[in-house]
Amino acid sequence: MTRNTRTPHSASRNALRAAIASFILLGGMAAAQQRGGTLTVGLGYDIDTLNVYSTGFLGDVQAAVVEGLVAPDAKASYVPVLATQVPTVRNGGIKIAADGKSMVVTYRLRPGVKWSDGVPMTSADVKFTWETVKNPKFIAESKDGSEDIASIDTPNATTVVVNYKRVAPDFMSTLFTFGIFPKHTLEGKDLNTDTYNEKPLGTGPFMVKEFRRGQYVILERNPYYWRKDSKGVQLPYLDGMVFKIIPDSNTLVTQLRTGEVQMAYGVPYSQVTQLDGVPGLRIVKNSVLSWQHLDFNLKTIDAFKDPNVRKAFAYAINKSAISKALGGYPTPINTVVVPVFSYTNPAVPKYDYNLARAQQLLDAAGWKVGADGIRVKDGKRMSFKIMAQAGRSTDEDAEQVIIASLKQAGIELQPDNKSGVAFRDARYKGNYDLFYGGWITSADPTYSVFYGSKGVNNGQGYASGKIDTLLDRAESTLDPVQRTAALRDFQTELMTDLPSIPVTSNPSMIAITEKLGGFVPNPTNMTNFVNSSGWYLNK
Amino acid sequence: MNATHLLKRLVGTLPLLLGVSLLLFGVLHLAPGGPLDVYADNPSVSPEALAQMRTAFGLDQPLPVQYVSWVTAFFTGEWGYSIRTARPVTQEIVERIGPTLILGGTAFVLSLLIALPLGIVSAVRRYSGIDYLITFLSFLGVSMPVFWLALMLQLLFAVQWRVLPSAGIQTIGSDSVLDLIHHLILPACILAFASVAGWSRYMRSSMVEVLGQDYVRTARAKGLTTGRVVIHHALRNALIPIITVVALDFATILSGAVITETIFAWPGIGRLFIESMNGRDYPVLMALMMAGSLALILSNLLADLAYAAVDPRIRYE
Amino acid sequence: MSDAAIPSTRRRTADTPWRLFRRRFLRHRLAVTGLVMLCVLALLALLAPHLAPYAFDGQDLEIMGQPQPPSRAHLMGTDQLGRDAFTRVLYGARVSLAVGLASALLSTLLGTLVGSLAGYYRSAVDSVLMRLTDVVLCIPLLPLVILLSGMLRPNVTLLVAIIGILGWMGTARLVRGQFLSLREREFVEASRALGGSNNRIMFRHILPNALGPIIVATTLAVGSGIMLESALSFLGLGVQPPTPTWGNLLNYASQWLQNAPWLALFPGLMILITVLSVNFLGDGLRDALDPRS
Q1: What is this structure's pTM?
Q2: How far is B299 from chain A (nearest CA, A)?
Q3: Can you give the three-state secondary structure of C39-107, one letter per residue?
Q4: Residues A96-123: tens digit of each pLDDT
Q5: Mean pLDDT, range A238-246, rounded to an integer
Q6: Could you tell me which chain B residue has the CA closest to the CA of A40?
Q7: Would A37 disulfide with which of A235, A537, B118, B239, CB 3.0-4.6 Å?
Q8: For residue B46, what pLDDT is reported?
Q9: A-contacting residues of B 25-44, CB under 8 Å?
C-alpha cells in the first residue's frame, strides 16, 4: 500500500509467487455464518493483468478466482485444494528414482470440480498449464518450476503424473500452486493478449463479473464452486467482493474511515494508530514470512569485504529504536529464518546494539574518526549510499533510524531510494552500496535464491562455498531431519559471516470491518484472499 | 481566415511534432536500462526470448533507424504494446481518456465561470476592498500546493462532514450522472483552483486596459451605466487576450491532473502516467508524452483560430 | 537593479529611473510586505544552524514512535522519529529556498542567453532557437519533470538542474522580444557605430535595458520552483529524507493529518507564505518596472 510504487513490497517476486495462500479449515468455525453480502476491499496498487502468471503484483483478486492443486495454510504448511492430498514420500505421492537424481510426483485430482463456466476440470488442464507456462512465447513473470519438469502423464481425468528432472523439495511452491489454466478456453490462444487477462476463468469461489481498469474489479459467486462447509452449505458465503483500486495510501485510509472500503491490508504502521479508534474497524496483525534486512554490496564496496566492518555495522544499528519508531509493530530479529518455521535457529550469533563494540571494531579495522566525525581509512571516507523503496514510508522511516544510528559510529549514509521497476532492477543487479528492504518467502523457502552464490536475488554478490554446500544439502533432500539440520547450520554460518544484517520482522497490518467473520490472515504473502470462501458478513 | 490559412497552420505543426518526438525519443533513451530491463531480472525469460523481444521491438537496430520506425509507427497509429499489461497502448489510453476529459473539462468550465466574473469585478472596482480581496485570494490559489489542499478538503468534506465521497469516479454499480457529479465535485474544484487564480488576474488586467480606452470613456460619457458599458462594450474586447491564455491552459489542466487523479483515485490519464512511470512502461510513456504534446499544439492552434474568430481586426491572408 | 548602472551625475535630478522605480514599488504595499517576508525567511534559512535548537536529523529515542504536539521544548512538536519539527522546518527553508532560487537563476540564465542570441542575431539563429523553444514549450511541463525525476532519482543539484533546464522558454521569448525592439534603438546604433563588439552590445548595452521583465520572470520562477519541488515530493520523486525540504516535510506529514495535524501545518504555511510573497513581489516589480504605467 505504498503511494508511488506498485510492486510487491521488497519481495522476491519469484519466491512469493510460490506462496499463493492457504485455506482455512472450515469445519471448526462458529455457527454464525450467513450467506449473502458483498465485501468491499481497497487495493493500494493498479492491477496490470488478472493473469496470475503474468501480473507484477501479488495477485489478491486472482487468489479468490483461480485455484492451484495445493496451497499453504495459515501456518505455512501445504493443504490440498484441487488435489485430494498433498503428495509426500510417505503417502506414495512422491517417488524418488533409484539413482536419487529425479523424482515422480503424482496428484489425484478432486472429482467433480468444475470451472466457473460449468465445464469439468481435468488432468488435461494441469498438463496444459505446464505447457502454456513453459512456452517461451508466453511472457510471464513467474515460470519457476516449469523447467524442472521433463514430462507429464495423464493416465485418466483425475490423475496427474509429473516427471521431474531433479529432486526438487520446493516443487510445491511453484507451478501448480499458482493456479491452473482452463484448456477448453485457452487452447490455441495467445495468452499474452487473450481476454483471459481481464476475465480469468478459474475454479475458485468467485468469478470476475467486471474489471474496470484503474477503478475496480467486481467478483461474484461462482455457482459451480466445489466446496461446502461442514453443514453442507454451498460456499462461498459472500455473494461477492469488490476490489477498489486506490493508489494513494492516505486516500485508502480515508476510505476505511468513511466506510467506503471495508478492508485493506498492508496499512502503513503510522496509519494503523490512527485507525485504531475508528468504530466498526478492527486491526489484525499478520506475521508474514518476511523479514527486514540490511544488505552489503560485496561486489563493489571494498570496505564491506572485511567481516569486522560488517559486524561493526550490526552492533551499531539500534534495532529496538527501529521497532519503537515504527510503533512497535515490527520486532527485532537475529536470523533470516522467520520463527514460524521449525528450523529457525535461536542459537545464532547475535549482534545486540552495542555502540562501543562497533567503534572498537572499526578502530581495529583501521577506520579512524576524521575531522568531520566520519571515519577515514587510507584517505577514503566511510560514506555510502543506502537504497530503500521510495514511497514506502515504513522502510523510509527505518532507513532514517539506521542512518542516525550509524552516524553515531562515525559512518555516513546517504539515502538513494528508488521506486517501481527501477528499485527492483537495482536490487537484482546490486546497484547499491547498502540495501534496506524486506524479503518474503514461500511456505517452502529456498534460501539459495538470496544467499547462494548464483541466487537470482543475490544482487549483493555474496559468495561462500560453505553456504552453498549447506543450502545445496537442504534444498536437495526431502528428509525433514536432514533439511532442518542443514538449514540450522546455514543460519549459524550466515550470521557468523554476516553478508546481510537481519533487522526486524515485517508484519502486515490488516484493517477489516468488525462484521467480517471467518477471516484468518495468511502469512505466506499478502494474498489473504484465497481464504475467502469461508468469509461471511454479519448483518 | 480561410481554409488555406488553416492548412498552413496545420502544416506548420508538423515540424513541431517532429521536434517533440526527437526530443522525447532522446529523453527516453537517456534512461538507465532499456525498455527490456523489466525482463532482465527475470530468470524465467531466457536470453533467447529476450533477444526475440529485442528484435520484435526493433531494439537491435541503430538508434536513428529505431527513431524513424517509431515515428512512422506513431503517426500511423501503431503505438505498440504496453510492457506492463501487454495490451495495445492505444487501448490503454482510450480507456483512460474519458475520465480525464470529464474531470479536466469540468474544471475548465468551472474555472471560467468563476475566474471571469471575479476578474471583471476586480477591474471595475479597481483598488477597492473587493479588488484587494480577490487579488489576495487569487495569489493564495497559486501559492498552495495542490496535494495539500486536496488532502485537507478530502478530510473536511468526506471524513468530517461526510457530504462528499472521498475518492473514485462513481459508486460501484451506479451509472447515474448525479452520482458522477457527486464524485466530481472535490477533484474538479481542486483542479480548477489554480487556474481560477491565474485567469482572474489576466481578466482583471485585460479589463482594466479596455476600460481605459477612448470608446469606453465615450460610452460612459453618454451616460451608460457601468454594467451596460462593461457587458456591451468592454467585455468582448477584454476577452480576446484571455482566449489565448485559457486555451493554452487547457492542456496544462489536463497534465496537472496527475496529482489530483492520484489522490482521488480517478481512473484517468494522469494515473496511467504514474503507473507507467513505476513500471518503466516506455511505450505507454512515449505515447502519453506525444499525445500530451499533440494536445498542447492543438490547443495552440485552436487559440489562434478562436482569436481570429473573436477579433474582427485580425485577418489572415 | 543596481545603483551602479546609473551615472551618479544624474542622481541629483528629480526623477532618476531608480527613484521612480523605488517610489512606485514602495506604493505597492503587498509587494513590500512580500519582500520583507522573503528577507526574513532567507535570514532564517541562513542562520538555521544557529537558530535551530536541535540537529536536523537528531532523533529522540524517548519520544520516538508517535509525533508529539507542540510544547515548550519543541515549538512545532516532533515527528514520528522524535525529531524537532521546528528545526526541520528551519533547515527545510534552506533547501527549499535554495532549490527555488537556484532553479530560477538557472532558467533565467538559459532563457536570457537563448533570447538574446535569437533577438540580436535574428534570421537563422533566431529561427533555430525559437523553433527549439517552441518544441520544448509543446511538451507538457509537469509530466516531463516527473518523467526525468523518476528516471534520474535526483539529488538537490540534479533537481535544480531539471527544474531550471525545463523552465527557460518563457524567459527566452520575453528577452527575445525585448532585444528585437531594443536593437533598433539609437543607443545601440551609436555603440555599433563606435565599433562595439556584438557581445559588448548585447550584454553591456541591450541587456541592462531589458532587465525589468527578466527580474519579474525570475522572481515568479522562484515560486514555481518551490511548488514543483513540493509536487515532486508528493510523488516521492523529490529530495530524499532525512534532508528536509518543505515539500517532503509536507508529504511526510500528510500521513499524520488525523493525529498530528501540526506536522503539516507549519511546512504548508511556509510554502504558502513564501510563494505568496514571491508572487506579491513579482506583481509589485512588474508594476514598478513597467514603463507604460
Answers
A1: 0.85
A2: 27
A3: HHHHHHHHCHHHHCCCCCCCCCCCCCCCCECCCCCCCCCECCCCCEHHHHHHHHHHHHHHHHHHHHHHH
A4: 999 888 999 999 999 999 999 999 999 9
A5: 95
A6: B172
A7: A537
A8: 56
A9: 32-33, 37-44
